[in-house]
Design goal:
By secondary structure, this protein is α/β, with parallel strands linked by helices. The chain is built from three helices and six strands. The chain has a single domain, classed as Nitrilase/N-carbamoyl-D-aminoacid amidohydrolase (4-Layer Sandwich). A hairpin with a 4-residue loop joins strand 1 and strand 2.
Length: about 150
Amino acid sequence: MIDTDVARIGIQICYDVEFPEMSRKLADGHMQILFVPFLTDTQNAYNRVRFCAQARAIENECFVAIAGSVGNLPKVANMDLQFAQSAVLTPSDFAFPVNGIKAEATPNTEMIVVSDVDLSLLTELRNFGSVQTAQRPSVRSLPITLCR
């Protein structure tokens, strides 16, 4: 967790975002923006990072910025092919874009994505959102019914 002049941020590198536990720990520390730099060589690998990053934005009620390498370096070992589409992802609720995408690059194209994010929307979401996924229910409050 890093406190900046603008926001409280977290960083997970590529594969790390595919596991929800660390993101949840960061969210429990009031992270507002999660940054995920990545390098993927296929569209399948990219989709795993992208879809998991989108899930982290929804379940932790935060913005997620994913930034990947694109292009090819044929004379560099293990860098001959890359696939990416950088984006700024949002939670899915009324105050945010309906598709959960604030901004995104053209797939597999070298470019810079710039997006303003309103951090006050996260506070509004956490207090009044239609589904408050960042608030974990107490285990004792969950009803359990055993059926035979």
